[in-house]
Amino acid sequence: MSLIKKAILGACLIGAPALGWTADSNFPNREIRYIVPWNAGGSNDIAARALQQILSESGINMVVENAPGATGAIGLTKVANAPADGYVLGMGTSSTLAQIAQKMTPLRNEQFTHIARVSIDPLMLLVPKDGPADVDAFLAHMKANPGKVSIGTPGTNNLNHIFAEMTARAAGVGYVNVPYPGGSRVIADLSGKQIEAAVLKPSESRGQIDAGYVKPLAVFDTQRLKVLPDVPTFKEAGHDAFPYGPLVQMAYVVAPAGIPEPVRQRLIEAFRKAIQSPKFLAFADQNGFVVDDLTGDALEKEIQAVQGALNEVGSKVFKQSSKPQ
Question: Which residues contact residue 178 at a Cβ distance below 8 angstroms, ignoring those fewer than 6 apart?
């Protein structure tokens, strides 16, 4: 090798660590892939695209990519297996935590760096516009048709599925669980009366509620929703939606485990600013979900707590659950 070539090679090797550090300090200097593990049009997709627009105003180019399947596990597996450089992120949800609790996916929380919580989403029981008038009428309908009433959920063995099970248990009968790859498909089939009921978020169903295609019967929460103040909680309707303890449906930003600390801090800073922006807070109010300021280590502790609750509740609910027919 010539002296010139040796000199060039030596310069490249010496400069490599410095270039790596510079890339981190200037992060992001190219577009970020944000994987939403659900179909387009669902609540998580809608929230991701709202954040995409807000982040773009800060000079961060984020491209939303839908990768539905296996109750979120397919998309999040892509995130877990991506390079740990911060340029591939994903939307984690309680649904995937429920899958982990049921050992239905090889994914583990340790495979991710937790960035920021995007939303806390209450869930509702909905029926078509000419369905039963209230929860008691729906439970009476289930009792009169044991094992035949269909309830649609985005995914299976998740919080939506748990609350569908709780509804059937309140009626004391079996039912037909109909899982879908995302909320947009559930609400479309509910509007078209292909299923008799659904467990969904307000953000997935508000448009169809306002248009009069579907109606909410009750909220699986401890208080009424500001966006739908006339809809009672299950407790108000005389039924316990949390017989095994409280549950929270949430969505949050994740990156692969092991990203550099400067990149982690930059992502936390950018998403915190976007989530706490007046534009996103107004978006949250319009779509009926709650926003808080939970990021980094605090979010990590919250996810561990939710995982523990789902490990306990999920095993009790699905141990004797009705199987899809």
Answer: 150, 151, 152, 153, 189, 195, 324
